[in-house]
Amino acid sequence: MTEFGFIEQIHTRFASLPDNGFEGIGDDCAVLPLGGGESLVFTADLLTEGVHFLRAATTPRELGGKSLAVNLSDVAAMGARPVATLLSIALPADAAGAWAAEFMEGYRELSETFGTTLIGGDTTRSESGITINVTAIGRAPSANLKRRSDARPGDVIFAAGELGASGAGLRDILAGHCDTPLAAVHRNPQPQVAEGLWFGTRQEVHAMMDLSDGLASDLRHILDRSGVGAEVEVERIPVAPGADVRTAACAGEDYKLLLTAAPEAAERLAAEFAARFGSPLHPIGRITAAPGLVWLRNGKPEPLEWQGFEHY
Ligand SMILES: Nc1ncnc2c1ncn2[C@@H]1O[C@H](COP(=O)(O)OP(=O)(O)OP(=O)(O)O)[C@@H](O)[C@H]1O
Ligand SMILES: Cc1ncc(C[n+]2csc(CCOP(=O)(O)O)c2C)c(N)n1
Ligand SMILES: [Mg+2]
Known about the structure:
alpha+beta, binds magnesium ion, globular, binds adenosine-5'-triphosphate
């Protein structure tokens, strides 16, 4: 079974149960309208030793920051402001002392940076490696929420930053070079919280998500949920220095925002983004009515078998 096949099975299994007012499985966050035009959003992300990180290749402080960052990125992807988190952590006995204290310092530092508070969680001993689960809660005016399901044919597709640095950094780490600048990028993702909030206020932004598994699979989630297709110009994918285009499209963990916007407003959106954030918004293609993801090189379709990260 594939990761996404399993999620689909879970979704189907619970479809007949009452939703209790929640918009559930399928987006970066679940949504609970509060009334008064406000909503809460909820997301959970797990990091487990050997799959998400190597203990010898990260400081506990960095891992504390990354555990929080990947969750804040999912809140940002909804156009919401992260407000609080819960942290559940399973630690082997040899990581329960100084390692855990440093981990918490990294988690606290990033919480302070983004104005979130830690409101609970759980702590247990582990017999096999470190596992960390974070639940993040965000808040937004309901009208600002951006979903994966709102892309429309003709929309311009944007990436809100360069891609591939994290994947290139992981390559360094797996080769035993943990002290390169790219390896540091991999261990210290910066969630686009201010950017996500700003996109939330822009009516011309239709669909949004964060890039965790890689453009090649993440964009497909927008396409599937919106019932549309896309053409992506390979030459326009913003490749971070030190990475290559395939890494940029497939390796994942860049935690940059991916969004679609109305074509008539796209140029102005990009100009205002650049003026506000001091970095470009990269147009990489467009949404089509015909289903499927088509990679274009020199304007011609190219049959690339590119895939993002999948757990199974
Ligand atoms: N075990 C699970 N039970 C219920 N829902 C799940 C489970 N695993 C994933 N989901 C839901 O499935 C959807 C897709 O999950 P996915 O993990 O791909 O999203 P994501 O959190 O944006 O990505 P990433 O984990 O790479 O950050 C989300 O709405 C998520 O909440
Ligand atoms: C040791 C080691 N091996 C591989 C990877 C790569 N990796 C793990 S999970 C993931 C996608 C996002 O995670 P998720 O979908 O679980 O949120 C990626 C790209 C890594 N970081 N460390
Ligand atoms: Mg996400």
